[in-house]
Design goal:
221 residues; mainly alpha
């Protein structure tokens, strides 16, 4: 069935409309990679090609792939990816932003990791979305627009912490008010809930505010 025929058969409603948008994005990125095949290996935006000083720290990348960054929403997404080969698009955006902006790791490493594990991996779509979240693709939005705060996204999309508690069980007994940033709990409270930061769950791998400033500087090329 062609994309056009499928689109014609979709009913009205919020769900079908969201599917329609994703179908359009899929076909768009297929056209991009068809006409710009070098995008498979390099940034679409010439301004950034070979000019961003990416972080080559393997330990940071490994912490990200293992879901051990100390940021609950990021870790939940990455653990779900390892376990199930899939995660919701919102989680993909958050973990992609975290890798490229907060950790400063080359988007191509994240792209390859996704293609290795995703059961719905598509080369053109995966490439286009990684370039999008890394602010080096066809979308003209500046880098600061795509620096996603994991705590704020968790507040909006996982306010009761069900997703995080499912995939990061060591945080299961952390109270809601501390679940987004568990390192803010005092040490006595950490012991009470059985989650001592740095022992039962990692300390934050980076300071979010410092990492954001470093990201903005990295993109000033």
């Amino acid at each position: 069935m062609s994309a056009r025929e499928l689109e014609d058969r979709l009913p009205d409603g919020e769900g079908p409309e969201a599917f329609r948008r994703q179908l359009a994005w899929r076909d768009f990125y297929q056209q991009v990679i068809l006409h710009r095949p070098r995008n498979a290996m390099q940034e679409h935006r010439e301004r950034y090609r070979g000019k961003i000083d990416w972080n080559d720290d393997d330990a940071a990348f490994d912490a990200w792939t293992d879901g051990r960054t100390g940021y609950p929403l990021v870790d939940a997404g990455m653990r779900q990816l390892r376990r199930e080969g899939w995660m919701h698009n919102r989680a993909r955006l958050v973990v992609g932003s975290f890798l490229t902006k907060y950790l400063g790791v080359d988007w191509r490493r994240g792209e390859r990791w996704f293609m290795r594990l995703l059961i719905d991996g598509d080369e053109a779509n995966n490439n286009g979305n990684w370039q999008w979240i890394a602010s080096v693709g066809v979308d003209p939005q500046p880098a600061f627009k795509r620096i996603y705060n994991p705590a704020l996204h968790m507040e909006r999309f996982d306010p009761e912490g069900r997703y995080v508690r499912r995939y990061v069980p060591e945080l299961r007994d952390v109270p809601d008010e501390h679940l987004r940033e568990p390192w803010e709990m005092g040490i006595e409270r950490q012991r009470e809930v059985g989650c001592v930061i740095g022992e039962d769950y990692p300390e934050p791998i980076v300071d979010r505010r410092e990492a954001r400033e470093a990201a903005l500087e990295r993109y000033r090329v």
